[in-house]
Design brief:
The complex is a heterodimer. Chain A is α+β, with helices and mostly antiparallel strands. Chain A is built from six helices and twelve strands. Chain A has a six-stranded antiparallel barrel with strand order 1-2-5-4-3-12. In chain A, strands 6-7-8-11-10-9 form a six-stranded antiparallel β-barrel. The relative contact order of chain A is 0.12. Classes of the chains: A alpha+beta, B mainly alpha.
Chain lengths: 286, 159
């Protein structure tokens, strides 16, 4: 301990003496030499500081910029998400626009007058039964007006107006088990009754057994049926069932011309039907 | 090996103090890292090495200044010796004692430096803001630097 203390005493005397000498003779050669030697300790700060001054001096600024970049990054990510959502909406609108443009083009070629309507509601419990459209009595829609849809560039029978409200209407789809339409098919133009089955498929009923009915044949609305204008495509024959022993006619499955699952817009044909074919309330109005 | 590391540490302290003073000064105030390092070295190192650290760090402070070359070297040398004396009586490893030592020695060193100015030069005006605030900044810096030095001493046997 004493040795350590002695060393400490010698050290403090030594270094203190040098310091005092430096203080006493600031302009002497030895002071100048020490100053130059000591100045090398500044070398790293000044040399590398000057060389990397941009990086070293701007550390606080860069840190702030890093934080700001992080915040910007978060904002941009949120914007990207929002834009992706809008993009999806835009693509849906674009598809709808293309579809509507096609329907407009087709509607000019349609021989009927009427109005376009948008399907605004489908009830899951009555999926193949009915839909609501955004046109009603205020738009001149009447009960039993024919409703057609567009599929593959052609108009097909979708159903008829079942209930009319001021601003919307209910459409009874042809696939409804309570719906039917008198139809005819090539080549002889024989008439038969197309009925809904409550599924996506239709049933062609009361076809005479001697009729030449083939699969793939188109079934059109017949002039004999008053509810629907003649010549509207109803569907195509998918499968023919032979006559049962207790019946004297054959039946067939019909694939509807309009797919209810993809129905988004419909064209309501104004029929101006005779009052006796309209519902009681509509007839009263007339 | 340790001497190289000590030189590197010495240069790093100088560079760190220079950078802090350049870029992180608040109202012109920065903790005197050179003084704080000298104090930490005096606490951790043996007497001779502690005094040598005080002398050379003081020289660095003198190089940074423009008057009384050797005044800081003398001040820190004597401070290191005083710490060597005091640490035999008090435990300077604890946080509180480091705070007290940093505060009291900062003011003592400033006054001593002013006294040297009276003797060897002309009385310099004492910046009251620095005189009042810097010791507290030093008191905050010393425990941090002490932990760094302590870990360096344990890991690389410097000081």
């Amino acid at each position: 301990m004493s040795r350590e203390k002695d060393a400490a005493n010698y050290a403090v005397v030594f270094f203190a003496a040098i310091s005092v000498l430096l203080l006493l003779f600031p302009v002497s050669k030895i002071a100048h030499t020490v100053r130059i030697a000591a100045s090398y300790s500044l070398y790293p700060s000044l040399h590398y500081g000057a060389r990397y001054t941009h990086y070293i001096r701007n550390v606080p600024d860069n840190f702030v910029k890093l934080l700001e970049t992080d915040q910007d990054n978060r904002l941009l990510k949120e914007k990207v998400k929002a834009l992706e959502v809008r993009l999806q909406g835009a693509s849906a609108l674009e598809a709808e626009n293309a579809r509507l443009a096609e329907e407009m083009r087709l509607s000019r070629a349609l021989p009927w007058t009427g109005a376009w309507a948008r399907v605004i509601n489908k009830t899951p419990a009555d999926w193949y039964g009915s839909v609501f459209i955004d046109r009603g009595a205020d738009d001149g829609i009447q009960v039993n007006d024919t409703v057609i849809g567009m599929e593959g560039g052609r108009a097909g029978l979708a159903g008829r107006i079942f209930e009319v409200y001021p601003e919307f209407s209910k459409v009874l789809l042809l696939t409804n088990s309570a719906a039917s339409a008198v139809c005819s098919f090539a080549p002889d133009g024989l008439e038969a009754l197309v009925e809904g089955k409550g599924t996506w498929m239709l049933k062609l009923n009361y076809v005479p057994e001697e009729a030449r009915l083939e699969e793939g044949v188109e079934v059109l609305t017949s002039p004999g049926g008053l509810l629907f204008p003649a010549g509207v495509l109803v569907g195509k024959v998918k499968k023919i069932y032979q006559r049962e022993s207790f019946m004297n006619f054959i039946t067939a499955d019909i694939v509807p011309a309009v797919n209810v699952n993809t129905l988004k817009e419909v064209f309501v044909i104004r029929r101006n039907l005779p009052a006796e074919l309209l519902g009681a309330r509509q007839a009263e109005k007339k | 090996m340790s001497i190289i590391l000590e030189i590197a540490l010495y240069l790093f302290i100088g560079a760190g103090y220079w950078w802090w003073a350049q870029n992180l000064a608040i109202f012109g105030l920065v903790p005197n890292l050179v003084f704080s390092s000298a104090l930490c070295a005096a606490i951790l190192a043996g007497p001779v090495k502690g005094i040598a650290w005080g002398f050379f760090l003081g020289l660095y402070a003198d190089i940074l200044g423009s008057s009384m070359f050797g005044a800081n070297a003398l001040t820190y040398t004597i401070m290191a010796y005083a710490v060597y004396i005091v640490k035999r009586q008090f435990d300077l490893d604890s946080l509180f004692s480091q705070l007290v030592a940093a505060l009291s020695l900062s003011w003592t060193c400033m006054l001593f430096y002013q006294g040297l100015g009276i003797i060897f030069s002309r009385p310099a005006s004492l910046d009251l803001r620095v005189f009042l605030a810097e010791p507290f900044l030093n008191a905050l810096a010393v425990p941090v630097l002490f932990q760094i030095f302590y870990r360096l001493k344990r890991k690389f046997d410097v000081l």
